[in-house]
Design goal:
This protein has about 280 residues and is an all-alpha fold. Helices cover about 75% and strands about 0% of the residues. It contains 15 helices and no strands. Helix 4 crosses helix 7, helix 8 packs antiparallel against helix 11 and helix 9 crosses helix 10. The longest helix is centred in the first third of the chain and has 39 residues. The protein is globular. The two termini are about 45 Å apart.
Amino acid sequence: MNDIKAIKVRQALVSVAKYTLLIFAAFVALVPIVSCVITAFKTNEEYASTTVMTPPESWLYFDNFITAWQKADMGHAFLNSFTILICVLAGSVLISSMLAYVLNRFQFPGNGLIRNLFMIATLIPGIATQVTVYQIMTALHLVNSMPGYIILMMGTDVITIYIFLQFFENLPVSLDESAILDGCSYFGVYFRILLPLLKPAIVTSAILKGVSTYNEYYMANLYLQDKTKYQVVSTSLYVFTGPMGSQYNYICAGVIITIIPALIVFLLCQDQIYSGMAAGAVKG
């Protein structure tokens, strides 16, 4: 009897600890968002005289959003960001899936070495290679250039390669062999047979690459140096910072504007996103 009580007490303590941790994690995640929304609706006087968690006097004050959109030229920034995003996603998916196709379907000397090098590459911090990357970009005259930035961001993530490798391992080689016997080339096998079957992997990799590209600030700020011509969403709000301080009410309004497109995409495509993530997480 005492053992049963001890087990119940232990289970209750575990449940309390679990939900306490979840509540704390939700609190940590939601506080910045709530403070950003509150600050976005404050006038300059309210922002200077109240705390970040003090509600604004009016939730219908939209002047900050209008100022952020106009002064930061966010329409131009959104156009540049979406152009970059479409090109990067298309190029990244093609490059990573082709690499995975070659590594999975063709056995050649160095196949295992290449896979191990990709694994080692994931252990190297990206910031540690920036000096070399910047020198290469400068030598190729790709700094402060939209095509140069797109090519740089199109660099395939190692995680994306392994996502496609996992899906290729679940596709039988007999599909390739049957298509080749019917006169199909290797490119035909890839584009006509295998690529249409990779939709879950494409969704998963597009989500990962799309989020990182849309939110990228460091690379955009470093390689797109002409902010009037090549500004993107992540760098457009830099106009509200200065030596005399930052105008956070305008910055927060701009942040909310940048969140809206991602939120709309998520609401419209959440079924595909969840199915792609689930299919990409389980092998077999």
